[in-house]
Amino acid sequence: MDLTNQIILVGSAVLLVSMLVGVLSNRIGAPLLLVFLLIGMLLGEQGPGGIAFDDVQTAHLFGSLALAIILFDGGLATPIKHFRVGLRPALSLATLGVAITATITGLFAAWWLGLNWLEGLLLGAIVGSTDAAAVFSLLRARGLELKQRVGATLEIESGSNDPMAVFLTIALIELIIGGDDQGFGLVMLTEFARQMGLGALIGLAGGFALTALINRLAMAAGLHPLAVMAGGLTLFGLTAVLGGSGFLAIYLAGLVIGNRPLESTQNIKRFHDGIARLSQIGMFLMLGLLVTPSHLLPVAGDALLFAAVLILIARPLAVWLCLLPFRFTWREQAFIGWVGLRGAVPIILALFPLLAGIEHAAMYFNIVFFVVLVSLLVQGWTVAGLARALGLEVPPTSHVVQRVELDIPGQQELELVGYRLAADAPVLLERRAPHLPAGVRPVAVVRERQLIDAGDLGDLRGGDYLYLMAEARALPGLDHLFVAPPVPERLTERAFFGDFVLDGEAQLGAVSTVYGMAIDPADRDLTLDALIRRSLNQHPVVGDRLELGRMALVVREVEGDRVTKVGLKLGSDD
């Protein structure tokens, strides 16, 4: 009994300390995953903790379970609207990009380390997937919001490239063990069709079925998150048992569930956000425990060179080739190329050769672990500064830190939201009753602990608590009215979008006459919307710019495929 109590004490204390250190790491800009890895190493057999842990099977089990939960949460949190601008480039990066990265790094490893070409490709496949979740946690900690095209591409890629790396790793292990009797091409094609086909089919069908089941079952609100998680993990296990990609299935299931009307949506998403963070902490602590630091030193030189090829050659080249058809700017390509952080997935995949008993498996694991450390240190610490330097940040549009969301039983489309109005809230500075977005109704105002009638909202004051009933799509507009975000001067609306706001349907000829803009006479009848979309040749997003001499048109609002509001910056030097 004493041993049980001691284990509970030590385990909970380690978790608490890890969370507190994680908060501190956000403040100093350190990559959170790196912190947990280092804590795990300090707790290990060669650290002050002295805990001896070398159970690869258990590590693989809990690592796979944690990764499935993280991918499920990633799907739940990905808005389907991001697919309009990021799906095609993200899928290109998640499939062809992973294959190119694995091939370049694999062939280099085969040459440099003296491996045969299949063994080299296996090492390349293990490090093929990225962990953009780590990137977004860093950006959020620094208060950065990326242009939607870049952010959506990275977000979708991070959730969809893990199955490709898993597929390549398993297929190459089968080839190495089987001696390539079936032929490289046949095994790869068969494995790809089976894993991706079953993963996509079961994930999508299961997501719709699980959504319908949750909405129809009468259960306590606290059970909804558990039922959704159990259903997602059931789909993961079922797909894996049938030989498909469980990781793809659970990500797609989460994507479907997160974008369908669902009972207790906010409770479900909050629960899974918390359990995903817990899984991430536990997984990295465990992987830190598993590694033996003294075994990293003998491979340090080879691993550094391998990491350099991966970060400086393989990933940028793969990004450039995959994004060629989509007309990303060089700044966007450079950032996406640099943000190929390696996280938990490569370390978990490095366990596969150990379980399969493949020669050089221990070397694979140590090299991969070292590469992840280098990636988190070098790329993780520079990503926020690079986003600013390349001009890829946009003024924040959502400030949920001051928003209270309450689920209403039986209503999946409406939310009751509340704001505490600061003295500098935009609605108070305008000194007039706000024009509420469509689908919003005021409910109540609480002032000095007294409930008063919301009325026409013309008498709002600083310190008031305002509650409104709103459709989910109206929430960003409400944030814009009732929250004053702490943004630097360069990201204020006037500095970023310019002094003038133009309608997307305004004709270029009329705008040029008013502002003295030099244009091609053949373009006089074009609307600003048509001009910008023709110039971009892709879906426009907020922050896109079109230079016209010393002036610039900056996309301010987008609805569907149309640019509805355009900012005009005079004297632009960009």
From TrEMBL:
Keywords: Antiport, Cell inner membrane, Cell membrane, Ion transport, Membrane, Potassium, Potassium transport, Transmembrane, Transmembrane helix, Transport. Pfam families: CorC_HlyC, Na_H_Exchanger. The keyword Cell membrane applies. SUPFAM superfamilies: FAD-binding/transporter-associated domain-like. Residues 403-484 form the RCK C-terminal domain. Its main location: membrane. It comes from the Bacteria. It is found in: Cell membrane. It is a multi-pass membrane protein. The chain crosses the membrane at residues 6-25, 59-78, 90-114, 120-139, 196-214, 226-257, 278-297, 303-323, 335-355, 361-378. NCBIfam families: PRK05326.1-1, PRK05326.1-2, PRK05326.1-3. This is Sodium:proton exchanger. It comes from Marichromatium gracile.
